Amino acid sequence: MTDLETERRAAAAGEPPPDFRLFIAGEWVDGVTGATFESVNPADQRDVIGRFQAGTAADAGMAVKAAEMAFPGWRATPAPKRGEILYRFGELMARHKERLARAMTREMGKVLAEARGDVQEGIDIAFLMAGEGRRMFGDTVPSELPDKWAMSIRQPIGVAGIITPWNFPIAIPCWKMMPALVTGNTVVFKPASDTPHCGTLLVELMAEAGFPPGTVNLVTGGGTEVGDAIVESPDVAVISFTGHSSTGKRIAERAGRRLKRVSLELGGKNGVVVLRDADLDLATDGILWSAFGTTGQRCTACSRVIVERAVMGPLLERLEARARALRLGSGLDETVDVGPLINPGAVEKVAGYVELGRGEGELVLGGAAATHGDLAHGSFFEPTIFAGVKPMDRIGQEEIFGPVLSIIPVDDLDAAITALNQTRYGLSASIFTRDVNTAFRAMRDFETGIVYVNAGTTGAETHLPFGGWKETGNGHREAGHAALDTYTEWKSIYVDFSGHLQRAQIDNQDT
Ligand code: NDP
To answer: Binning pLDDT at 50, 70 and 90, where does residue 3 land?
Structure first.
């Protein structure tokens, strides 16, 4: 029997849910107030996963102190040795992949295949960043003066505050913590309050992998309590945040007052362009996967299809038929295609946008919470499609973060590119076309951090930079070697072995 089944049986037998703790300075501890909050299964609100410490600013302060104390030792540990611990952590995640994926589906709702993918992203970034322990390239370049050596190296910044959302509850914390740790920073991690169990399981494995006490600290609790305290702490040198644009702006303002480095990965309104020469069956596959996978709750989810009018009819027909056949339910059931939204508040928010959409486009499919049978116990919403949406309509502009797709008809490629770029976000975009010239125009002219050709808007790989333009972020990137920039300072070093004073820009002037 898996741990998960044991827990579910215990819950069914009326046993109280298990209690979880904070992880500070290598110890599992209660929060100072002892207050707790529950995490529940979004597919079945009766299934309580556990009770978690409602951490406070005081707990966050202790975690920051522990991370600060651990920093000198971790910074001095050779980077390849730090990398070996990341490697062990990756191996542990691989060994526990199924357990982690099932726990994720239970707590966050995404179907098992996607939860396995989420864990795999964590494994991939752990291995990629383990390798950075032996790379972490700087530059060694010729000096403009004789007998002088010039090079630049990366150095850690200090304590990194890691604040994460619930929609990728394993992958995103790993995307942030792995580069932070391999470069020699220590970490205070605050997971989203909807997914504290995933965060806790992750940190349990990190402790087992051998990260020294204080290098990784976990504080569960509310964003305005624990999150604010981390952002405001003068002893936290860098914040890496993924979440809503509104939360990100607030964090940037507060951190800005302290000139603190902040990496922000925020909202999206990702579009797929379908042109008249596209393979419509392939486009349908890509759009369905991007729009309704993870119940539309990926930052890279497709929520706009910008289609040349000439092929709108046949594309819509395909999308409607396929979306109508999607099966809703608990993601632990392997026959289910679409899991629940994260919580009842999300159902309300999506329903509100659907009401708005009725006045903007034509509702073709769905449009209501799904409450029949067992679905009544969870936060389910029908896959929803609106046709005839205009680029500047609110449902075509605002992040809905649910299974709602807007179809925007346009006359030609130019209009498609204009519509695609007419948004304040800029994370991911895709184009379906068989014309190589058109594909290259899109690659050049789409104003997004990620572009796909003949694929949906999701599917990023961990060794390429991940992040968005415009209000999707503030110019930083996760993943790839670009991620190292968030967590390191550059140091340029000049070594003069000439034995006499040489003055750059002065002693080497001929004119
Ligand atoms: P939120 O902004 O609500 O929360 C994100 C995290 O911030 C949570 O841990 C939350 O804590 C915490 N938080 C909330 N308020 C504060 C505060 N004042 N100070 C510090 N921390 C705070 O986002 P969601 O969790 O709802 O995530 C969904 C959003 O994330 C979507 O907009 C989505 O597009 C975006 N996202 C972007 C990605 C990208 O790479 N661009 C990737 C994935 C998601 P608590 O849970 O306790 O409230």
So the answer is: low
Rounded to 5°, angle at Cα 65 from 60 and 66: 100
- The CA-atom distances, in angstroms, between 49 and each of 42, 183, 197, 399 are 10, 34, 8, 29
| Confidence class for position 16, pLDDT limits 50, 70, 90 | confident
**Residues in Cβ contact with 184 at an 8 Å cutoff, skipping those fewer than 6 apart:** 74, 75, 77, 79, 82, 155, 156
The residue contributing the CA closest to ligand 1 atom 13 is 223
Which residue intervals of the chain bear CATH 3.40.605.10? 20-266+473-491
Q: Look at phi and psi of residue 73 and say left if phi exceeds 0, alpha if psi is from -120 to 50, else beta.
A: alpha
Each residue's pLDDT tens digit, 73-109: 999 999 999 999 999 999 999 999 999 999 999 999 9
Q: Which pLDDT value is given to residue 8? A: 62
Q: Whose CA is nearest to atom 39 of ligand 1?
A: 265
Which member of 265, 308, 471, 478 is catalytic?
A: 265
Annotated active-site residue 198? The verdict is no
Q: Provide the pLDDT confidence category of residue 1 given band limits of 50, 70 and 90.
A: very low
CATH of span 20-266+473-491: 3.40.605.10
Q: Which fold has domain 270-453?
A: Aldehyde Dehydrogenase; Chain A, domain 2 (3.40.309)
Mutate to test the pocket of ligand 1, among 247, 342, 343, 478 (most ligand atoms within 8 A of CB): 247
Enumerate the CATH 3.40.309.10 domain ranges in the chain, comma separated.
Answer: 270-453
What is the pTM for the complete model shown?
Answer: 0.95
Residue 174 designated active-site: no
